[in-house]
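User: Please predict the structure of the protein below. I'd like the answer in structure-token form so I can feed it into my own downstream comparison script.

Assistant: Understood. Taking the following sequence of 394 residues as input:
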Amino acid sequence: MFETLKKATLDKIFVLMAEYAADPRAGKIDLGVGVYKDDKNITPVMRAVRKAEQRILDSATTKTYKGVVGNKEFSAAIVDLALGNTIDKSRIRTVNGAGGTGALMILMHVLGRARPKGRIFISDPTWPNHIPLAENANLEVHYYPYFDAATRGVNFAGMMEVIDGLTADDIVLLHGCCHNPTGANLSRTQWDAVAASLQRTGAFPLIDLAYLGFGDGLEEDAYGLRKVVAAVPEAMVAFSASKNFGLYRERAGVAIAIARDSESADVVSSQMQNVIRGTISQTPDHGAEIVRVILEDKDLRAEWEAELTEMRERMGRLRVKLSAAIRQKSNSKDFDFIAEHSGMFSLLGLPGEVVQKLKTEDAVYMINDSRINVAGIPEDRVDELADKLLAAVR
């Protein structure tokens, strides 16, 4: 049976994780895998999460199934968090996903049924897993320009040239905030232009909302999402609780479908449930229940929001410190963009051989396209990291 198979390409992030774990050097620095880390280089269990888990442990009476749509109260709380009162909720249907990736899988499979071999336009560059998710859903992947390697900002003119030319049969995948891998994000004025274009062309938006609250704040980061869904009759949103609730391994996500009316929404809901039933049957609930408890409790929600603010501000502080250290040591503004970006990632624009040199000679690990996770920057070793980066590029 297996003689017909060829070895699949392993995900570069997980390969890097294994290399980092096997590296015996004491001073190694992990800027690769996209998880938040505190000042002790630990991905912590958030305080509100720990309290919510204890409540669940104390009150749980069963582990029976929740049903194919999953934890309805969790989904409703996420709709309120992400969309607010932007649109009539009678047009919205939700199911739980196994993390944000699972939510994307569900939504893309429904889109692949609605438009077999339909064109989906994805930013260049993007999170690499977007591509196989789309291909596995019977969608045809195309790209729109996004990142300007010279300015380290958004190539908005190039992006809009493609988006303005889309048709009503096309799908466009948008990063809701905190673009992965670049860290370069759309301004409010640019989001306004994107929403107006989609309203004019009828192209279908699929929004990946994996980092809500990691950029400028919960309300601020939701601006683009809300602007787009308010402008169009149909849309989909994939929400992840992995980063903003620190629930990486719990796989808590929500697939959100917005239809023209309630009747159409019911049809889409049936398709989402059919995808779940035919793949994993039921979605995980532990992480979903944690988020539900937090968002429905005034005190726990306030504590979660405060901790999320601490995380966001720490990443911003690390950005400023690293860019300032590089400027001070090099008398150059070449890396000022690190402080100008927001979210967890920045794309440094280093050649592959420099990335390899940093790993082999300096034990500094980053993805081979030079994406760094700024939360992995050791705050007490910023000057050392700046020296290593400058020495490698010289």
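That's the full token string. The domain at 8-45+300-393 is CATH 3.90.1150.10 (Aspartate Aminotransferase, domain 1).
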